[in-house]
Design brief:
Elements (H helix, E strand, L loop, with lengths): L3 E4 L2 E4 H24 L3 H26 L5 H6 L3 H5 L5 H18 L4 H8 L2 H15 L13 E2 L11 E2 L2 H20 L7 H17 L9 E2 L2 E2 H24 L6
Helix pairs in contact: 1-7, 2-5, 5-6, 7-8, 8-9, 9-10
Length: 256
């Protein structure tokens, strides 16, 4: 649609711009919840700093693994860092790394677990902005589809032009917003400790299904599943096992 957007006379990459908006949305959500919970703003900023580092690292690592035959490793090994960091981010890698990050940092800095839960809540919001960026950039597009809500991309983007396609980016954006609302509600209940499991459970299901409607060929395959579907299966299983285990421990049961 609009890979480049004119902003104050400058040409700005739309995907990068949406990622920046996503980071701002995450920041304001964090600050809102920190204030509401009477927590330390500086500790939350430390958490956010490491979340950005882990997010970028995780998304780049997964991108390199999925595109191991592409130019990603060549850019890195040849120290073409501008080329390496200007393209190629896999949202799933960022999400997994962030979940690991919030609990690691809360442990290392001896933070209240609420910082970890608050850290995770707006991650689907970041995902939603990322998918808006994908839509504007014309990447992560859907399969040919001539039904309700189909979209047609113009010439000059990565997606096939002048062909009705399934709006995979917008579908995931809507799903991510719904997950964000659900996590926000969950945080204000007595089940807030299960935010990681609920996030992993619902996102893995949605992502697994939406992968069948994706039309871009760069996603990588593991057997009969795309890379993201394979990861979704693992995330789904881990989320179920973790929920059952922690639920039983909460109720005083022992695991055989």
């Amino acid at each position: 649609m609009y890979p480049e957007i004119s902003l104050f006379g400058l040409s700005v990459n739309s995907y990068g711009l949406m990622r920046m908006f996503g980071l701002l949305a995450v920041y304001f959500c964090h600050m809102h919840l920190v204030k509401k919970e009477n927590l330390d703003k500086e500790k939350m900023l430390i958490m956010e700093f490491w979340m950005v580092i882990f997010s970028v690292t995780g998304s780049k690592i997964l991108y390199c693994l999925v595109n191991y035959n592409g130019n990603a490793w060549n850019d890195l090994l040849s120290l073409h860092l501008m080329s390496f960091f200007s393209k190629g981010y896999v949202l799933y890698g960022a999400q997994i790394a962030t979940v690991f990050c919030v609990f690691l940092i809360s442990y290392l800095y001896k933070m209240d677990k609420r910082y970890a839960y608050i850290g995770l809540i707006p991650m689907p919001l970041f995902n939603a902005f990322g998918r808006i960026g994908c839509f504007l950039n014309g990447c992560c597009y859907g399969k040919a589809y001539d039904g309700p809500f189909s979209i047609v991309f113009p010439n000059g983007v990565k997606a096939p032009s002048n062909i009705p396609l399934f709006p995979s980016q917008l579908a995931e954006m809507v799903a991510a917003l719904l997950i964000f609302i659900g996590l926000y509600k969950l945080y204000h209940s007595r089940y807030r400790k299960f935010i990681p499991e609920v996030y992993g459970f619902f996102y893995s299901i949605i992502r697994f299904i939406l992968e069948y409607y994706r039309g871009d060929p760069e996603r990588g395959m593991i057997g009969m599943f795309s890379t993201s579907q394979f990861i979704s299966i693992i995330v789904f299983i881990i989320s179920i096992i973790s929920f059952v285990y922690r639920r039983r421990m909460q109720n005083g049961f022992q695991i055989d």
